[in-house]
Amino acid sequence: MLMNNFSNSNFEAGVDEAGRGSLAGPLTAAAVILPKDYENDALDDSKKLSEKKRFQLKSIIEKDSIDFAVFFISPFIIDKINILNSTFKAMHGALNNLKTIPSFIVVDGNKFKKFKNINHKCVVKGDAKYQNIAAASILAKTYRDSYMIDQHNRFPVFGWDKNKGYGTEFHITNIKKYGISELHRKSFVIKKSQTRLEL
Hints:
Elements: E1 12-18, E2 27-33, H1 51-64, E3 67-73, H2 75-81, H3 83-97, E4 104-108, E5 120-123, H4 131-152, H5 160-163, H6 169-178, H7 186-193
Parallel strand pairs: 1-4, 4-5
Antiparallel strand pairs: 1-2, 2-3
């Protein structure tokens, strides 16, 4: 069972992102405010859950939460400002999209840029420790996955319905074969496929 809140705040927002290491598609962040005494044994780090379970929990989180919001950062912006700054931008975007102003923020990971003047705490592996961060990780992942499955119809050669834009062998082979799409992160694909330097 994950812990409720880090703070004593009634409106603590958990924040997490998905798609950081992907070669294609957006970076997606979510912010979730759960009721203070909320308990759901099924909540966990989204990576530990099956796709079916994540989508089941998505509906429950959206119904049970005080507030939730999601924010996407495009591959173009990721290439422009780098992945770390994109992560901060996505997290801030999700927090800005909340209708309820959080009184405290808990963030998965070890880095965060202060949002407005709200106190925050970074928690390494927070999505496996706190319910609100786990909920945010599930929403970020499911919203991003749905987007990538949808985009698979536009670019079927890359297998995004299965790999969601991550660098599987199939995905990398077909980047070499067909070139990159407008949804690929140029700064990532070059690094990933550059196995040796031409001197």
